[in-house]
Description:
The chain is of the alpha+beta class. It has a domain at about 40-125. About 45% of the residues lie in helices and about 20% in strands. The chain has a four-stranded antiparallel β-sheet, covered by helices on one side. β3 and β4 (about 120-125) form a beta hairpin. The longest helix is centred in the middle third of the chain and has 28 residues, at about 40-65.
Amino acid sequence: MTRTTITAMAVVGTLATGGVFDGLEAQQQPVCLHAAGETPADAARRQDALRAMRTINTVQAQAFAVNQSYQNLRELTDSGLPPRPYGFLMQLTVEGSTYALLLQDTVDPCRYTLFSAQDGLILVGSPLK
């Protein structure tokens, strides 16, 4: 083989490999369920999670007003908390006069997440990219 042929093969191989990697990178970008193209079913699940978050914040505020303490997840469940929204992980940490609540969509590749605490504000988050 001539030096020109070897160089040409190396360039073609590099370009082809670069194209393959570009394609793989494009495929690795997750499609977020709660973005512009959100389906009605996913919108309903997101609204269920938001309602659950608001309900828990309300119940926690009432519990603190009466008992000066917040309820853990078992106490909330025993007092009639609505069921955990489908596909969402729920975590509640109660410590003294504070609590932290997280609802994360485990079905969503972007892990849409709602956060709240004793101030009652609801925050929306997703992982850093």
